[in-house]
Specification:
The protein is of the alpha+beta class and 273 residues long. The chain contains eight helices and nine strands. The strands form two sheets. It has a five-stranded antiparallel sheet with strand order 4-3-2-1-5. It starts with a helix and ends with a strand.
Length: 273
């Protein structure tokens, strides 16, 4: 067919009312499918969020369910749109093997992240609200999706980590924590009196915080010898996540108690955690 014949055919099709009717039909069908999919996503995600906010229900799976709903509805809508414009979806799906080879190197990371996220949630390793440590970063888990985990650090920074990149995770919100206070005192100081100060402070804090304390405080004695003095240590088992506030309170009280006993800490000696 010559170029002239092609132009004549195009002109004929453009002037044919049936061509315009078919085009309008396809546009309407695509709009209906898109709007229906959008409405389904909105309704289902709102229902999932309401269910997640109910008292006593876990909210960790809500973002995961939202992601799954979006992916499933999006895929179904795409298939219906292709069928609406008379595209052979079966042939496209049959050639998915070739497409997977073309995009395999990129898709492998997505699959890795999704599988890692499923294992993290199914095994109960972490939940929304947990205080966790990832390498050098510590923060509170705010959101978990199929592919990523979002952690809010103490300074406000929102850290987004692919699930597949999480190789080691420390959960500081499970079981118990240990509040540890170390004080370095000069060698000339009376270590016995200093240890009694630590013991008294530990018992005083445990008595004042019965809901946080987990057992009797332990005075671990001299744990290190430094150039500036001897380091003594107090440790207390506490409720998970309460160790930092406990350490701060006991550290302040220890400094006051040492001062009351006449045990001075000079500029070369520091209080450490």
């Amino acid at each position: 067919m010559s170029a002239t014949d092609v132009l004549r055919q195009i002109a004929h099709d453009v002037g044919d009312p049936r061509t315009w009717a078919g085009l309008v039909e396809h546009v309407v069908a695509l709009l209906v499918i898109a709007l229906t999919a959008w409405a389904a996503v909105v309704v289902l995600t709102q229902a999932i969020r309401r269910a997640g906010r109910r008292p006593g229900r876990p909210v960790t799976l809500a973002p995961l369910a939202e992601s799954a709903v979006r992916y499933a509805i999006g895929f179904a809508a795409l298939v219906l749109m292709l069928e609406a414009v008379h595209v052979n979806v079966t042939a496209i799906l049959a050639s998915a093997g070739l497409l997977s080879l073309a995009f395999g190197f990129g898709a492998q990371y997505v699959i890795r992240d999704v599988l890692a996220g499923l294992f993290l949630l199914s095994e109960g390793v972490v939940q929304i609200g947990d205080l966790v440590r990832l390498d050098a970063d510590t923060g509170t888990v705010e959101r978990i999706t199929l592919r990523t985990m979002q952690i809010r650090k103490f300074n406000g920074e929102l850290l987004t980590v692919p699930n597949g990149a999480v190789t080691r995770i420390g959960n500081l919100s499970r079981g118990f924590g240990r509040a540890i206070v170390q004080v370095t005192i000069p060698y000339r100081a009376d270590a016995g009196r200093a240890l009694e100060v630590l013991r008294g402070v530990g018992r005083e804090w445990a008595a004042a915080h019965p809901d946080d304390a987990r057992g009797e405080p332990s005075v671990d004695g001299a744990v290190d010898l430094k150039e500036s003095g001897v380091t003594i240590q107090l440790s207390v088992l506490v409720a998970a996540g309460r160790q930092w506030s406990a350490e701060a309170a006991m550290r302040q009280r220890i400094l006051e108690g040492l001062a009351e006993q006449g045990i001075q800490i000079d500029a070369r000696v520091s209080v450490t955690i």
